[in-house]
Amino acid sequence: MSWGNFTIVAIFTLLNFLFLDFPAAKIIVYVSFLFLFLNYLYYRFVLSNINVERGNKDYFLFSGISENSVIKVKNKLFFPVHAITVKDQSDLNIAVRQVYSFLVSLDSREEKSLFYTICGKKRGLYIIGPTTVNFVDLAGIFSFEIELDTRKEITVFPNIYVFSDFPYKSLQPQGNFRNKLPIYEDVSLIKGVKEYQPGDELKRINWKISARQDKILVNTYQFSISVDSFVVLNLSKENYNFREKDYYIELAIDIASSIVYYLEGKKQNYGIVSNGKLKNDESLYFPMNNGNMHLIDIISSLSIILPSDNKLFIESLKELTNLKWGTSIYIITPELNEEEIAYLIEINKKGHPINIFNLGPRIDRELDLSEIGFSRYYVDVENGIVKILSL
Question: Which residue from 165, 170, 176 is spatially nearest to 328, judged by alpha carbons?
Answer without folding.
Answer: 170
